[in-house]
Design brief:
Helix Hairpins; binds magnesium ion; MazG-like_dom; NTP pyrophosphatase, house-cleaning of non-canonical NTPs
Length: about 110
């Protein structure tokens, strides 16, 4: 039985516990890649391979699947997803402060 909480990683972890669904991180990473691929398929289909980007439409259910897999991966790796996002946002904010751009500074090809 999972608890009611607003912390999505905790909710996913409780679901994995309750349903005996823990898996090695490598499996979770492949599952995540598969779900991202499903989002890409939605994008491919809705935009005619990118030729009409204004028509982009991704399935909310697939976005949810992807988030589930991402939180499951974080859980299996022992990473606090919220802390990781906080670190990422701080990195981007620092880059914007330093250069005005959140990118890593890698030149475009
Ligand atoms: Mg899916």
């Amino acid at each position: 039985m999972f608890c009611v909480t607003s912390d999505p990683q905790r909710r996913v972890a409780d679901f994995l516990d309750a349903n005996d669904l823990h898996a090695p991180p490598a499996y979770r990473l492949l599952d995540l890649a598969s779900e991202v691929g499903e989002l890409a398929a939605d994008a491919t289909n809705s935009t005619a391979y990118g030729s009409t980007p204004e028509n982009l439409d991704v399935n909310r259910d697939e976005l949810g699947d992807t988030l589930f897999c991402l939180y499951a991966l974080a859980e299996e790796l022992g990473v606090d997803a919220e802390a990781a996002v906080d670190e990422s946002l701080a990195k981007y904010e620092s880059r914007i402060d330093d250069s005005g751009d959140p990118g890593s500074g890698v030149p475009e090809k």
